[in-house]
Amino acid sequence: MKKIYVFLICTLISLSVSSQKTQKEKFPKKAAIYSAVIPGAGQIYTKKYWKVPIIYGGLITSGYFIKDNQDNYTMYKEAALTSIENNYEDQLDFTYSELITLKDYYRRNREISYFSFVGIYILNIVDASVNAHLFNFDVSDDISLNIRPYSTLSNTGVSFSLNF
Fold first, then answer.
1. What is the pTM of this model?
2. C-beta separation of 52 from 40 below 8 A
């Protein structure tokens, strides 16, 4: 299984590197597919390398909170079930109602962590696509808007001139 992932990563990186040498235009669909298959690959394709650690930081952090909340949820759920079996005795120094409250708290936090993981993953894909759309966007200092009053024998007004 690991060999498949390594092969897939090497293939995507080699395709990205070879396509960067031959073309100056970036294709949004290609960037989105790269990021959908491997998070951050679309950012590498569009030469936004600094975004890759941010993406992986967000995904790893969300994954950590998913696991931590799942472990706590399972622990308090089992303690609540044990409390029911033992005629509502205290478990883990908590009463049954406190155990149910803690169980619900960690279940909710786990679900929020799932949403944040999916949100970061989708944001990664959208970001790669937008970067590809704007790859050749001109941001030179030559963009200006000039407003001048003008007057002729028959007309008077304001002239707008936009330079790109």
1. 0.71
2. yes
